[in-house]
Write a structure and sequence with these properties.
five-stranded mixed sheet; signal; Immunoglobulin-like; 5 helices; alpha+beta; Cupredoxin; disordered C terminus; single chain; Ser-rich/MCO-related; binds copper (II) ion; Extracellular serine-rich protein; about 250 residues; globular
């Protein structure tokens, strides 16, 4: 009675494929549900980068907030730029010039279904600062961006839901911050309006004189010239101006 029962399992065991780990793979993806997926929020432009990610249940999307002041806020598929009831909201997380720590929002992925996210700051959503976790297609991302751009304004989120705010060192961030914004430029001198529009170009020293000096080097086969003795590379401007002189 025992043995026939065991034998009856044999066909099932033989039919089950045996998957051996492939140890020669150079890059072994971590198991699903165990990944930290970085997404950069803001920066020189009001964007999510990337604006679509594929995540398994249990993965954590780590939003890293670059320059500006942004949110990660969940909307419905058909209600762009408007918070979904009970949806994820990070609150507004700023990044200012010189900051050495980067604000993050770690969002555990709880569903493999598409998840629609936008930034609720000002007009950022209308500018296309939206993304989808687990989109069904690239077209769905395009459609969501376009639908967001067609809205007239965003609705802000309220309380922080669906993740945890934290910080990482900027050296470990997935982005390089935008260069510090310069102080407001000084007002133009009063006489500026009378100056011809072309005066800045005319005031530049002509670079054409440098071009003829390059000619002998250009005729020398590069391979024979030791690198130490080569003349410095002409600037792009000098090359362009030299070419213009030759025409
Ligand atoms: Cu934003």
């Amino acid at each position: 009675m025992y043995i026939p029962g065991l034998l009856s399992l044999l066909p099932l065991a033989l039919a089950t494929p045996i998957i051996l780990p492939r140890q020669n793979d150079t890059a072994i993806a971590p198991p699903a549900g165990n990944r930290l997926i970085p997404v950069v929020v803001g920066g020189p432009q009001d964007t999510f980068i990337p604006n679509q990610v594929t995540a398994a249940v249990g993965d954590i999307v780590q939003f890293q907030f670059s320059n500006g002041n942004h949110t990660v806020t969940q909307s419905g598929a058909d209600t762009p730029c408007t918070p979904l009831d009970g949806g994820v909201h990070s609150g507004h997380i700023p990044f200012e010039d010189g900051q050495q720590m980067v604000g993050t929002f770690n969002m555990p992925v709880t569903s493999a279904e598409p998840m629609f996210l936008f930034c609720a700051t000002g007009p950022h959503c209308q500018l296309g600062q939206v993304m989808i976790v687990n989109p069904v297609s690239e077209q769905q991302v395009l459609d969501y961006v376009k639908a967001s751009q067609e809205t007239s304004e965003s609705v802000d989120g309220t309380s922080v839901v669906g993740g945890a705010a934290a910080q990482i060192e900027i050296a470990n961030a997935a982005f390089v911050p935008a260069p510090p914004e310069e102080a407001a430029p000084p007002p133009p001198p009063p006489a500026a309006e009378e100056a011809p529009a072309a005066s800045p170009e005319a005031a530049e020293p002509p670079a054409a004189e440098a071009a003829p000096a390059e000619t002998p080097e250009a005729e020398t086969p590069l391979a024979e010239a030791p690198a130490e003795e080569m003349a410095p590379m002409p600037s792009v401007d000098a090359v362009v101006e030299g070419a213009e002189q030759a025409m």
